[in-house]
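Bench notes, afternoon.
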Amino acid sequence: METMSSWDNLVEEALAKLESLKLLRSLRPIYLPNDQHSRPIENEAQSSSISDQKEAGKEVFQVFDEMQPWDRSSVEVQIAEETFQRWVCDVPSTGDEAFCIDKVTDNEGEACTQPFKKLLLFSGNDYLGLSSHPTIGKAAAKAALELGMGPRGSALICGYTNYHRLLESCLADLKKKEDCLLCPTGFAANMAVMVALGNIGALLAAGRKPLEEERIAIFSDSLNHASIIDGIRLAERQKSVKVFIYRHCDMSHLNALLLKCKTKRKVVVTDSLFSMDGDFAPMIELVKLRKKHQFLLVVDDAHGTFVCGKNGGGVAEEFNCEEDVDICIGTLSKAAGCHGGFIACSKRWKQLIQSRGRSFIFSTAMPVPIAAAAHAAVIVAKKETWRRREIWKRVQDFKALTGIPITSPIISLIVGSEEKALQSSRHLLKSGFHVTAIRPPTVPPNSCRLRVTLTSVHTLDDLKKLTTALSQSIDFQDIGIQSSNGYARL
């Protein structure tokens, strides 16, 4: 396609410039011994128990076909009574009350006598409940016991191992991309992509001010994540990009901006599933505009990866447009239940980002046990398809119980004032639910909200209790679901 051909040529030119300046960076994986072969393995047969089976040198990841008792620990939490009281009274806290200190005796073996409150968690991002999965925990524990934390250094120095490479390979396959680059967080991944984009024009300008035709125009949704916004801010400092903010999910506005922009090199960046509003980017319309305007499409699929699509490939898989997304950013700290971020892209883009993405270059690589756990999580998330079925059932259940037309597991109940949001959150807290009030600067003034997130390990009974408590503090008929005004935070 002409779009990718022109961008491939541009990236090749930038890589050639980096090579001439001896600034092209390489990943040199350190091999850590393992008694299994370092390649993606999937257990085709589902099981109802856990074992350490080995088959022909392959590691067997145990998966399950229904909810297990341990799954509930990802949504059933407890907080100290002191924390509870401070929260109810809206007293600032530094978290010191989390320490269980016996003020009477120094006997470390004595049980903690501090009272606790049990809460049902409806505010996390562990959408599939994988943070408590024993197969994933076992993968982390095994790696930690055998290898410790692994080499401590940036990926370009010594922190990159065969474990990291194995995880990258699995994620590239999941996202139907040629390659993948691991980053310490999803925030760092978005920053690295935006900064690398800003570097292209600066590289080709070779020290002078980039010409108009050498600059890159970045078009960003007004409600994109803070990491995209901060990355664009850094890219702007290189004087090689022009930034345009289009109204939230407004394709007519985006099209108008694209038509007015005379810069040939255009990039559109968007969240796939917006973290505060719970709505999807209009992927089909974006694909149509991509074909019309020949721009590079960058999608942050942090909240869609593993949750959407038949195989958990994300929002692009859900809308059958994986090939139309040029660069896909994701996280391992939400539905995967682990930690870290990644960039799924072509090999050319990977080499450019690992050479110019400062948040990647200057960060220590993720510890090996985390990489091992995340690899297991990718396998489990793909194989335990019941988790995706259950989370979307909960979406339908919430809709039926409240009459609110939600479209995703992220439910943004806009109540308006800051005080009303805090009052509703405190009421839910007293009723046994962990739901936080979202206030400025995270959201615009007078659009304060309760952000409720559903998971595959919540039950219908959980939702009935939650909606009953919610109805006592807010009127469902008066609730706004999505912010009606585009709020450009750049």
